[in-house]
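Re: the request from the purification team.
They wanted to know what the chain is likely to look like in 3D before they choose a buffer screen. I agreed to run a prediction and write the result into the notebook, where they can find it.
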Amino acid sequence: MELSDGIRTDHPEVFVPHANAPLSELGRLRLARCVVEDGWPLRRAAERFQVSVSTAARWAGRYRQLGEAGVSDRSSRPHRSPRRTRPRIVKRIKHLRTSRGWGPARIGPKLGLPVSTVAKVIHREGLPRLSDVDLATRQALRRSVRRYEHAAPGDLVHVDVKKLGNIPDGGGHRVHGRSSAVRARSRPQALGYAWLHTALDDHSRLAYTEVLGDEKASTTAGFWARAAAWFTDCGIRVQRVLTDNGPNYRSRDFAAALAATGTVHKRTRPYRPQTNGKVERFHRTLATEWAYARPYASESQRRAALPNWLHLYNHHRHHTALGGLPPASRVTNLSGQYS
């Protein structure tokens, strides 16, 4: 008779045992059957399954009383909770929440209860957050998350700019700390900023980024000309470009650059940055995994690391929105896809 590491996961009250637990549910069942059906002494069964005699007696007793159901995991929830908030108080909390739109910080003092208790009651009763409630009607708002993905590479390319502070020679605060004296020595004058211009394909998440000195109209137009050429080299014909309403994207220079590549320009709605959220999320990844991934000794060192990181992102890094595959996997015949 061999012990099994199998654990039931379809039981509504299963608690996965820790790594050193001697018995799974199947192990308990085998132990109990050895005692109840095969007549093993408790001490022998305890030694065989490497548990105490009291543990062997407990599982044998439950099996004798309830059968196979007796060896299943049970909830640790107590049968009685004498200190639980009384139903009458819960009803008052719910009334103040739904009729007046009060939060725990106001309901608690009103009823003489801790704010934490009120918050737990609101959560336990499944009441919606105030941000999800219409304050006029007290009705829950119906919020839907709209996600989209264009069918083919090039159908839509997201374009955006992210601003980063330059790193002084010798390293910044991530190397030397945030002491004002160190900053004064290592940064005698303003170092300025770098602007990351990015074009990201909506379907494949393939990304092209340049570090430039500003976000002026002429700079943005030049970036798009090079980005469009790069996508063409990847076998992608860009049909549409989506940007925000920044002045560089509303300029004549940028319009002329798009016209030269035969690309249609689309803009996000004002104050709706989530419309361009894919490139916004890419910039967050870029900052985390490249810009601030390690303490660079200089700005030139950080910029020199960008091409390798972009290659890693496009060709090798697993992307959760693509089922764990890299962006290059969605572009047919992409050069360097497996390098």
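For the purification team: The chain has three domains: 1-77, 87-132, 157-330.
Please add any questions underneath this entry.
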